[in-house]
């Protein structure tokens, strides 16, 4: 019985290890997603109007692409009114960038100022190379 439990535990751990991030393809550009504030979520939605393969990152061919992300965040009571509860927003942001390079890693960061979401694309040297535009928000 102990061997069965031990084997089941090891198989479970092995299965979880298989769900890590894949290794970047050196022939493509890799875009990490980073929500800058606590209690927020940032997910990959689309590349060039096609569903993203994985919600945790983008991997694209070199060249020009349009990325769409989903950013969920709370608007704090200080931005609403003195007795208000935080208000959750569910927004989409779109970003066009014309010069993705093979083998390069980029980082797409998102945050908000009050009700307004923002997104910025950084290259490997931490230079801002693109900015996202809001593509619609709703309360959740």
Report on this model:
This is Lipoprotein. It comes from Pseudomonas kribbensis. With 140 residues, the protein is mostly beta strands. The protein has one domain. The protein is 11% helix and 53% strand. It has 1 helix and 10 strands. The strands form 2 sheets. Strands 4-1-7-8-9 form a 5-stranded mixed sheet, with no helix packed on it. It has a 5-stranded antiparallel sheet with strand order 3-2-5-6-10, with no helix packed on it. The longest helix has 16 residues, at 2-17. The protein is elongated, with a radius of gyration of 19 Å. The relative contact order is 0.20.
User: What structural class is derived from the secondary structure elements?
Assistant: mainly beta
Radius of gyration: 19 Å
| Count of extended strands | 10
What is the count of helical runs? 1
Which H/E pattern describes the elements? Answer: HEEEEEEEEEE
Distance between the termini: 47 Å
Fraction of residues in helix: 10-25%
**Global shape:** elongated
What is the topology, as strand order, of the major beta sheet?
4-1-7-8-9
* Major β-sheet annotation: 5 strands, mixed
Spans of at least 5 consecutive residues whose pLDDT stays below 50 are: 1-18
Indicate the mean pLDDT: 85
Protein name: Lipoprotein
């Amino acid at each position: 019985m102990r061997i069965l439990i031990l084997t089941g535990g090891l198989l479970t751990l092995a299965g979880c290890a298989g769900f890590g991030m894949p290794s970047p393809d050196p022939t493509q550009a890799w875009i990490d997603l980073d929500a800058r504030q606590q209690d927020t979520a940032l997910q990959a939605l689309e590349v060039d109007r096609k569903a993203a393969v994985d919600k945790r990152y983008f991997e694209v061919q070199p060249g020009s692409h349009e990325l769409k992300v989903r950013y969920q965040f709370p608007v704090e009571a200080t931005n609403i009114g003195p007795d208000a509860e935080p208000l959750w927003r569910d927004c989409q942001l779109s970003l066009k960038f014309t010069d993705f390079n093979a083998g390069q890693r980029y980082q797409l960061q998102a945050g908000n100022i009050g009700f307004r979401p923002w997104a910025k694309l950084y290259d490997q040297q931490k230079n801002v190379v693109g900015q996202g535009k809001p593509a619609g928000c709703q309360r959740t």
